[in-house]
């Protein structure tokens, strides 16, 4: 069947409108940063558990999103969940590797038991050396921290893998506790990553 010109334009408009709705529904937006609602990783579909902004004083430092294979709202559930996981950071301002690394190290120190830190010390040292090799993080840079079963913790910056994987799952959990531990780097961001918007709506995409 051949459509006349008017019907073709109408069909094209409907398809364009439908596509725009579909595209809008597939992503969330935080501080102008778009985060996919779901993404594939290690043959698993991960869902955006929650996302928010890391503030330091009044400054927005980065947007962080936590991806899991199913929604979780407590830290023990998140740490115990099997399968791949992802934390995605998108920089909202430039930071030196010293400033960024200091934030990571402080978060790990404050949320990791002494015995566990001793067990993971070699991996923490290598982690620090890896970040020391990056002079700075620029606005718009994307830092990804993946847990891949059978592989380990894989860090990537702007799509390029940084160093070799860290194989111990305890190391990945130590990194997660930077944001989700009892003394997180940002309490509002912790709530947002766990999809808790009860009293801090400014720091969540929902």
From TrEMBL:
Chalcone isomerase domain boundaries: 28-194
InterPro entries: Chalcone_isomerase, Chalcone_isomerase_3-sand, Chalcone_isomerase_sf
Sections of the chain in a coiled coil: none
Sorted UniProt keywords: Lipoprotein, Membrane, Signal, Transmembrane
Pfam families, sorted: Chalcone_3 (PF16036)
MF GO annotations: intramolecular lyase activity
Signal peptide: 1-25
Name of the protein: Lipoprotein transmembrane
Biological source species: Undibacterium parvum
């Amino acid at each position: 069947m051949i459509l006349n010109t008017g019907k073709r334009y109408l069909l094209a408009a409907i398809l364009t409108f439908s596509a725009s709705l579909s595209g809008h529904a597939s992503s969330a937006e935080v501080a102008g940063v778009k985060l996919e609602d779901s993404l594939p990783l290690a043959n698993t579909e991960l869902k955006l558990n929650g996302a928010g902004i890391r503030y330091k004083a009044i400054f927005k430092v980065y947007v962080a999103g936590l991806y899991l294979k199913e929604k979780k709202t407590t830290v023990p559930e998140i740490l115990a969940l099997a399968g791949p996981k992802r934390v995605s950071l998108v920089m909202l301002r430039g930071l030196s590797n010293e400033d960024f690394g200091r934030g990571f190290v402080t978060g790990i120190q404050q949320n990791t038991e002494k015995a566990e830190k001793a067990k993971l010390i070699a991996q923490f040292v290598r982690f620090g050396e890896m970040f020391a090799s990056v002079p700075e993080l620029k606005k718009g840079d994307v830092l990804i921290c993946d847990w891949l079963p059978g592989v380990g913790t894989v860090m990537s910056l702007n799509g390029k893998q940084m160093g070799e994987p860290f194989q111990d799952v305890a190391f990945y959990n130590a990194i997660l506790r930077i944001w989700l531990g009892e003394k997180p780097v940002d309490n509002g961001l912790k709530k947002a990553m766990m999809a808790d918007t009860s009293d801090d709506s400014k720091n969540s995409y929902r």
